[in-house]
Design a protein that fits this description.
The complex is a heterodimer of chains A (about 240) and B (about 400). Chain A contains 10 helices and 7 strands. With about 240 residues, chain A is an alpha/beta fold. Classes of the chains: A alpha/beta (about 240), B alpha/beta (about 400).
Chain lengths: ~240, ~400
């Protein structure tokens, strides 16, 4: 069995990398993305909702941002903010983007709702030089205890719907996701876990702890070509 | 009523000096609006290989051009549309066809923007077309008029903007055939289009759409009154053929749910069914009315020419069969819009445009509006379309400093 420490770098102290002096109001997980993006970068936000993150990136970083959003309400909200957002679907629309079209591609809380997460992730890595991806962690202790002790599918803040209503069809744990990164040859440049309130874990902790106490995982990936970090380590 | 078939298209265009200051007031000098006349020294270079000269373009405007000349909006009209987007129609007396979208305080705000709409070349509402007088023969062009393309229409519009002193457009917008012109504008003059809104359109006409157009054309040409296209001299009018063409086309502008909601299987009069071929059903009566009222305002040959222009439109074919090449390097910001019940230009057509724009790394927004009104939804009261248009246009205006 492979150990997480073999395939991923040391946990990323995202709390320390948060942009300083940012006025309040912005979601902390958005600020994590903000901390990653260089000024003027080209960013594609897939599942961009009402465009909050894209607007933040544009206003604070001068980012050339684009978005894909499934809901008409979301698209209209984005249009009103002047954001070029297309009504579309991560499962069907990514194949039309050329390679390396963006500096950063963001997929926030969406991969678990796609039909084919592996193909989606491969497209993200192809389209963007870097990929920021976040997802609810099905390995969180609450999830585990719901299943283990109550024998029920969990309903949490990040997974608020009952199993028969949810759009989420491909749950994974942080550890599972690391496995997928290995499979598709993604280099994990940075990784962190956010707590239930979307705040980065304050302390550097072993991976198995994150997989237990992290409500969501946030990963910065790229297509590992010439590096050691994401390449499979032979035991 | 023959008004739309004869003057003013029969008046020969006179050459006018090009240094005349642009006429941009909003008082219409005649029923068809303003006229821009291009003389023998300013021919329209057409795709058919013909230099059309002289020719004239009829147009209407609303709003005021600002000092920077940076607030111009070009509206491109659809197949049977015209320049009277916000003006009473001289033949039908109806209000402007896009007053839902254009006017003071509307998404295309005439208090902020200078809006221009010109009758496309090849049409019959004042711009030169097959019903105009051919200076070479002193009779109407008829089928001697060169085949018109969407690109020819756009070139003529560009000449009109040159005449008006408008270097670049803040916004180019249109639905259906108008949307084709918007795409052609963005491809042909990318530096002259700041923002583009192609609505309910496609980058090429589908085989099904060509098929419907061919049925319409054959209906016109099968009418003996068409007289091989020489009906103006013969003193006849192919009203039956043109009416049938319109009836068939009108079905394609609607949707089954809209037809069902509006007419269902309801009978027209109390005594129906009459056990005859009278218009028993309300839908029959409605279509006959559509056909009849259309022939009052439209020239049959112009209908042949404009349907042909749409059929020939294939923007990818002009760019090495790769649609993205048409938009390579574009700085224009796009907002593409489709309607769920539009089966003439279905959402897939709009998505093909969006995918090409993505592949060209263009700034593109795309909205599919939920509507059961079919293709014609873009002309109707669709609050979701207005909301999206307002958001896109306002944001573009901010980006342009308007």
């Amino acid at each position: 069995m492979k150990h997480l420490r073999d395939v991923a770098p040391a946990p990323w102290d995202a709390a320390a990398s948060l942009p300083r002096g940012e006025p309040g109001g912005a979601r902390v997980d958005h600020l994590v993305v903000l901390g990653l993006v260089t000024p003027g970068a080209r960013v594609l936000d897939i599942g961009c909702g009402d465009g909050t993150l894209l607007a933040l990136l544009r206003d604070r970083r001068g980012v050339d941002g684009r978005g894909i959003e499934l809901s008409r309400e979301g698209v209209n909200a984005c249009l009103a903010r002047g954001l070029p957002v297309i009504q579309g679907d991560a499962d069907t629309d990514l194949e039309n983007y050329p390679d390396d079209a963006f500096d950063v591609v963001v997929l926030s809380q969406t991969i678990q709702a796609t039909r084919n997460p592996r193909i989606v992730l491969e497209h993200l890595l192809r389209i963007g030089r870097q990929v920021v991806i976040s997802f609810p962690n099905f390995g969180h202790w609450r999830v585990r205890s719901e299943l283990a002790l109550r024998g029920r599918m969990p309903v949490t803040a990040l997974m608020p719907e009952e199993w028969y209503e949810t759009q989420n069809i491909h749950y994974c744990t942080i550890r599972d996701f690391v496995g997928l990164c290995r499979t598709v040859g993604a280099r994990i440049e940075k990784a962190t876990a956010l707590d239930a309130r979307g705040r980065p874990m304050r302390f550097s902790m072993p991976w198995w702890v994150w997989n237990l106490v992290g409500a969501q995982g946030v990963f910065l990936l790229s297509l590992g070509k010439d590096d050691a970090l994401g390449a499979p380590t032979q035991p | 009523m023959t008004m739309s078939l004869d003057p003013p298209t029969q008046t020969r265009a006179e050459a006018v000096p090009t240094d005349v200051p642009p006429d941009v007031d909003t008082k219409a000098p005649n029923a068809q609006g303003h006229l821009a006349q291009f003389g023998l020294d300013e021919p329209l270079a057409m795709d058919a290989g013909v230099a059309l000269a002289p020719f004239q373009i009829a147009y209407q405007t609303a709003g005021t051009l600002n000092a920077d000349r940076s607030n111009a909006v070009l509206i491109c009209h659809a197949l049977t549309g015209d320049q009277h987007f916000a003006h009473t129609h001289p033949v039908t007396g109806k209000r402007g066809w896009w007053e839902t979208l254009v006017g003071p305080g509307k998404p295309i705000d005439t208090d902020r923007y200078f809006v221009v709409c010109s009758n496309v070349v090849g049409s019959c509402m004042g711009s030169t077309g097959p019903a105009s007088l051919d200076p070479a023969t002193d009779r109407a062009y008829g089928l001697d008029f060169p085949l018109v393309t969407i690109r020819d229409m756009v070139r003529a519009q560009a000449m009109l903007l040159d005449r008006l002193g408008i270097e670049d457009l803040f916004l180019c917008i249109g639905g259906s055939m108008g949307g084709m012109q918007v795409l052609q504008w963005a491809a042909l003059y990318p530096e002259r289009v700041f923002a583009a809104m192609p609505i309910a359109t496609g980058a090429r006409h589908s085989a099904q759409n060509i098929a419907f157009h061919e049925v319409g054309r054959q209906a016109i040409m099968a009418d003996p009154a068409w007289a091989e296209g020489r009906y103006l001299e013969a003193g006849t009018r192919p009203a039956k053929g043109l009416g049938v063409a319109r009836m068939g086309a009108h079905i394609t502008y609607l949707s089954e749910p809209a037809l069902h909601r509006k007419f269902g299987r309801r009978f027209q009069g109390g005594s129906a069914p009459t056990f005859s071929f009278n218009a028993d059903f309300q839908i029959e009566s409605y279509l006959r009315h559509q056909g009849l009222s259309f022939v009052e305002r439209f020239d049959a040959n112009a209908y042949l020419y404009l349907t042909r222009a749409m059929d020939y439109f294939d923007l990818a074919a002009d760019h090495g069969s790769v649609l993205a090449n048409a938009f390579r390097g574009t700085k224009t910001r796009f907002c593409v819009m489709s309607f769920t019940s539009d089966w003439l230009f279905p959402t897939a057509d709009s998505r093909a445009i969006v995918h090409a724009l993505n592949a060209a790394s263009a700034a593109v927004a795309f909205v599919e509006v939920e509507s059961d009104k079919g293709h014609d939804a873009f002309l109707l009261d669709e609050p979701v379309m207005f909301g999206a248009a307002r958001g896109f246009i306002d944001a573009a205006a901010r980006a342009r400093g308007l």
